[in-house]
């Protein structure tokens, strides 16, 4: 499969699941559904589904205001052109990186456009896309790769413009998943949920809004009540296996990069509407 069509780099992003999720949708839905992620992050899988017309529309939600601000800038007529101009005009250097980091850290003091851009800038410049990390090549910019190596402006602008062209099929929200999930489930029909919450083990190191044990338990109770079909991805942890007893749970490997390539053993869990789901490894591109 080609590179992710998301403008954001995300550790453990699920864009590689595209062939599999595309198959699930074609298998279980007569008509293209509304695709929903309650923890959207980079939303690489959702963008792939949208641009290939595998789904009718998408709903992006992230409780992290900074991630929400980025997506709002991408799809909003109010912000899009100015956001693209910022990409063109903003230099890629340590002085600018420090300015963008300050905006991100003090996002309450800045408008949505500048917060969205700071989030994007740090994500593209930092190691493994981790916004709270240091830039690629280090503060002194003396590494083998430098902070601009993942910041091809022309390519990124094209990705953003491709998404903007489909803005009439995209909704963006900034809500707590615990409230967002039942709200969407009751409001819409013909929905396919893909839940990718903060992981149990790696969560605190990767996510601004990580979960504690009780958060994972509470989420499992909410998801168990969802009427529309769903899949859920997690790290393989006994807590998660206990929370989702009674649902089909399978393990799979997804290669991703955090400083070095490695395979992460993960779980995919299925709602009871997805009867006898096919196995992931038959569809993931190696």
Automatic annotation (TrEMBL):
Record's keyword annotation contains Cytoplasm: no
Transmembrane segments: none
Keyword annotations of the record: Methyltransferase, S-adenosyl-L-methionine, Transferase
GO biological process, one term: mismatch repair
GO molecular function, one term: sequence-specific DNA binding
Signal peptide region: none
Pfam families, A to Z: MethyltransfD12
InterPro entries: M_m6A_EcoRV, MeTrfase_D12, SAM-dependent_MTases_sf
Gene3D superfamilies linked to this entry: Vaccinia Virus protein VP39
Protein name: Uncharacterized protein
Species: bioreactor metagenome
